[in-house]
Amino acid sequence: MTLIRSLVYFVFLVVTTALFALILSTIGWLLPFQGRSMIANSWGYCNLLLQRWICGLRYRVSGAENMPQGNTIVLSKHQSAWETIAFRWLLPRDQTWVLKRELMWIPLFGWALAAAQPIAINRKAGRKAAVQIIEQGRIRLEQGRTVVIFPEGTRVAPGSRKKYGLGGALLAEKTGYPVLPIAHNAGVFWRRRGIKKYPGTIDVVIGPVIETAGLNAAEITRRTERWIEEASSSLPQSR
To answer: Which of 46, 66, 117, 118, CA to CA, is 20 to 30 A from 38?
Structure first.
């Protein structure tokens, strides 16, 4: 039954993604950025509802009072595709995401991403990618947006960890904007590889803001990684 429900949801995910991508990549360009954000965030909300109705997959958020309204660098655990959908709705409206540039090459979907003004990087570019994050991230932060980054760079199974990249921390060091760490256990219910979406409740924990003024990137990374990993390990690791 879980597999059947997951397949049904996958069909709806494809349909809703195509529909919202079509809207964003056409009339979305005629709207101010706030209007485009509302369309993208509505896609996230729609899919959160579908996950609950079809798969029995819910979520609960703790620490929402810690979340500023913009001008923040979000550094989050990355375990599945769930957070790439849910954060569109759970985070402040105007968002800029750091993502791999290959996503921009997907017909229709990539055009919609372009309308949302992401920071599309070549992950193999090293220092050049970091400079791009700093330069473009500064502009977006000054525009009042939330910049979203997954410091591990790829999806990591629950209970595992990868080395945290310095891109987000460098952006924080150079701009002085605060970091908002987020932990969750989405990978327990939506695995990084696999079609099944298991019923249950995903826990999302929003940490206290890390003020970065006067800190270097290494220290920002250390504080962020310590909080995220400790918070993640305290969440249920099995269904």
So the answer is: 66
Domain 2-233: give its CATH architecture.
Answer: 3-Layer(aba) Sandwich (3.40)
Residue-wise pLDDT for 50-67, tens only, equals 999 999 999 999 999 999
With beta carbons less than 8 A apart as the criterion, state whether 190 and 158 touch: no
Residue 66, both tokens = 């810690």
Is 130:118 a contact under the CB 8 Å cutoff?
no
In order, the DSSP letters of 103-120 are: GGGSTTHHHHHHHT--EE
Between residues 70 and 201, the one the model is more confident about: 201
The fraction of the chain above a pLDDT of 90, given in percent, is 91
| All structural domains of the chain with their residue ranges | 2-233
d(CA 215, CA 199): 41
Asked if residue 75 lies in contact with residue 168, where contact means CB atoms within 8 angstroms, the answer is: yes
Q: Is the pLDDT of residue 89 over 90?
A: yes
| Amino acid at residue number 1 | M
Three-class secondary structure of residue 190 per DSSP: strand
Alpha-carbon distances, residue 165 vs 66, 130, 170 (angstroms): 24, 9, 9
Closest CA to 76 of 49, 55, 95: 95
Q: Are strands 146-149 and 72-76 parallel, antiparallel or unpaired?
A: parallel
Specify the amino acid at residue 205: V
Give me the sign of the Cα torsion angle 119, 67, 232, 184: negative
**Residues 168 and 149 sit within 8 Å (Cβ to Cβ):** yes
pLDDT confidence tier of residue 126, bands split at 50, 70 and 90 = confident
Q: What's this model's pTM, rounded to 2 decimal places?
A: 0.94
